[in-house]
């Protein structure tokens, strides 16, 4: 048989049950209802039993209809007490729970289950776990295994899942690690992970964080609607007014197996406080990603919840808030105290909306972990049991829990990372930097006068340099004129000299000791000043690196040598020293017998 999909709604006088039975034989169906029991059968669907939260009656006003297009049965049943509010119609898993056996001798009996339920209804929760002195237990022959999971009901799970351990939780070997040691290791790991630079960067540059803080999840609007209806006469309202479950969520509720949890007072406290811790992490994830899921969603939820990541068992609400605040400032991308406050306020709103809102959040967490390969273990350890357990929780318990949470305060000084001191020091540094910048601005405003002085000095230096260049050019012109006079003087002296003429090509092969070198450019300039044919000029430009070697030495001097080299731009023409052969033969240079003033004595042999 197939359990059909169904949902329940109500108005003041009737309870409406909608059952989806596609491809069923509508001509053959059976409906049974009496008191709190309801059963339905239409082959191949069988709704074995619904345990209703209130009583219904058969008085002729009941009605049933079938929609062939949608394949749904709609059954309206009158309430035994008109105007009665049926609580928990969305808690489908608890509605599917079989009724307790009415046999005088039940095969399985939950010992003290009714007493626990009555105790929960009567006692006033203070949300603080009683402190008991530590007693050292005697060593056992068997290895001791510590418990964890929902209500600390499980142990030995990670002995079978060692490969998945490091990807899911941070505590090593949880089966052999007591709760106190887990807490010490967790605090040490958080202290080592905290980075002041990252925190201060998010503190001062918080544009992205301020943007995500503006996001409003679905529970904000639902909470506003609930506040708006608080002034009305009816204090209790249908959860459909504020919280709506999707078809996928309803299907998940139908898949859960109903369970009963026997929890003592201490374990119930652990469960409630663990619920706050998980909801805080979930609210952070929804806020920073603005309701969208990504590959980091599973990591965010389990990493920020010490209940999931370190299998922590808290003893007070304040401890839960401190742990969550520390982990927000240590692990995720956005590490801002404003996100801690935002998650705190969102969790208060969810608890005030009742168990339907809490269940919707838990179902979303269950889906996130189901889609992540290693995190599915946390569903088996915590989330599935929370989804089943919350459906049976009294709404006034959640209301009391939300009130206690709202009264609890969390300051930066409680976190333990000296946040206020870090912020104060960073503010002082910023003030000093701003003062230095202001001083730099003032000094820049005083720069124009000094710059004018600098420009004046530059102008004067440029003027002096121009004058120097002018004088240099004048000197070059005067030297050029003097060279012209010298050349003319040499021309008059050539007639007195009867020394043999030396071929220009032979000058390169001379072996005399005294040597003079005349640069190519000077020869080029001097050749251009004469009437030598163009071809000869080109030939001389290529070949002439002339050296004049003297066979005679002046009296009173040892063998002297001087090499005269001048730059190309300073060459002086010597037209009188060259003669032109009218027959087209080579040109010759005649050496004067007197000392040439252009020749400078460079060195003596004895001085070398």
From TrEMBL:
Molecular function per GO: unfolded protein binding
Domain of life: Eukaryota
Annotated CS domain residues: 1-90
Keyword Cell inner membrane assigned: no
Subcellular location: Cytoplasm, Cytosol; Nucleus, Nucleoplasm
Compositional bias annotation for Basic and acidic residues: 473-485
Family annotation (PROSITE patterns): CS
Annotated keywords: Cytoplasm, Nucleus
Gene3D superfamilies, alphabetized: 2.60.40.790
Gene Ontology BP, a term: box H/ACA snoRNP assembly
Region (Disordered) residue spans: 439-486
A UniProt-annotated Pfam family: SHQ1-like_CS
GO CC terms in record: cytosol; nucleoplasm
PANTHER family: PROTEIN SHQ1 HOMOLOG (PTHR12967)
Record family assignment: Belongs to the SHQ1 family.
Entry protein name: Protein SHQ1 homolog
Organism per entry: Oceanodroma tethys (Wedge-rumped storm-petrel)
Biological classification of the source: Eukaryota, Metazoa, Chordata, Craniata, Vertebrata
């Amino acid at each position: 048989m197939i359990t059909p999909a169904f949902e329940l709604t109500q108005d003041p006088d009737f309870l409406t049950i909608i059952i989806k039975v596609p491809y069923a034989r509508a001509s053959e169906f059976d409906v049974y209802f009496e008191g709190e029991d309801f059963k339905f059968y239409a082959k191949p669907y069988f709704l074995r039993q619904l345990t209703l939260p209130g009583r219904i009656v058969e008085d002729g006003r009941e009605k049933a209809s079938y929609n062939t297009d949608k394949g749904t049965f709609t059954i309206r049943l009158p309430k035994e007490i008109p105007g009665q509010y049926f609580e928990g119609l969305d808690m489908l898993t608890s509605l599917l729970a079989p009724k307790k056996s009415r046999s005088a001798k039940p095969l399985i009996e939950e010992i003290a289950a009714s007493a626990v339920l009555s105790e929960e209804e009567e006692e006033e929760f203070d949300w603080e776990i009683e402190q008991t002195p530590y007693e050292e237990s005697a060593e056992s022959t068997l290895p001791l295994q510590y418990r964890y999971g929902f209500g600390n009901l499980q142990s030995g799970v990670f002995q079978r899942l060692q490969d998945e351990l490091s990807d899911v939780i941070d505590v090593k070997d949880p089966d052999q690690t007591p709760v106190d040691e887990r807490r010490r290791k967790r605090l040490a790991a958080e202290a080592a992970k905290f980075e002041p630079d990252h925190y201060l960067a998010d503190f001062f540059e918080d544009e992205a964080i301020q943007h995500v803080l503006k996001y409003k999840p679905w529970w904000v609007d639902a909470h506003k609607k609930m506040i708006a209806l608080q002034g009305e006469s009816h204090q209790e309202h249908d959860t459909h007014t504020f919280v709506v479950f999707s078809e996928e969520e309803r299907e998940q509720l139908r898949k859960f197996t109903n369970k009963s949890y026997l929890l003592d007072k201490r374990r119930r406290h652990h469960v409630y406080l663990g619920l706050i811790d998980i909801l805080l992490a979930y609210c952070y994830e929804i806020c920073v990603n603005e309701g969208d899921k990504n590959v980091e969603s599973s990591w965010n939820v389990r990493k920020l919840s010490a209940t999931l990541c370190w299998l922590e068992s808290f003893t007070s609400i304040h401890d839960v808030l401190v742990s969550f605040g520390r982990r927000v400032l240590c692990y995720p991308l956005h590490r801002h105290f404003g996100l801690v406050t935002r998650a705190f306020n969102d969790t208060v709103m969810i608890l005030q909306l009742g168990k339907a809102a809490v269940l919707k959040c838990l179902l979303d967490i269950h889906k996130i972990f189901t889609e992540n390969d290693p995190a599915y273990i946390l569903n088996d350890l915590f989330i599935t049991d929370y989804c089943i357990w919350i459906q049976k929780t009294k709404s006034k318990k959640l209301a009391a829990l939300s009130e206690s949470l709202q009264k609890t305060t969390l300051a930066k000084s409680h976190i333990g990372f000296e946040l206020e001191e870090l912020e104060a020091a960073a503010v002082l540094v910023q003030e000093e930097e701003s003062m230095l910048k202001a001083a730099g601005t003032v000094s820049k405003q005083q720069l124009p006068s000094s710059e004018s002085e600098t420009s004046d000095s530059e102008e004067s230096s440029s003027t002096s340099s121009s004058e120097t260049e002018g004088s240099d050019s004048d000197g070059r012109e005067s030297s050029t004129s003097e060279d012209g006079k010298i050349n003319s003087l040499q021309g008059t002296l050539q007639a007195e000299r009867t020394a043999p003429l030396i071929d220009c090509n032979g000058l390169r092969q001379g072996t005399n000791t005294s040597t003079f070198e005349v640069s190519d450019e000077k020869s080029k300039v001097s050749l251009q000043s004469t009437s030598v044919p163009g071809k000869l000029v080109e030939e001389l430009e290529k070949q002439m690196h002339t050296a004049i070697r003297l066979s005679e030495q002046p009296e009173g001097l040892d063998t002297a040598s001087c090499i005269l080299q001048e730059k190309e731009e300073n060459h002086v023409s010597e037209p009188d020293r060259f003669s032109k052969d009218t027959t087209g033969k080579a040109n010759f240079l005649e050496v004067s017998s007197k000392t040439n003033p252009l020749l400078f004595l460079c060195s003596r042999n004895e001085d070398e």
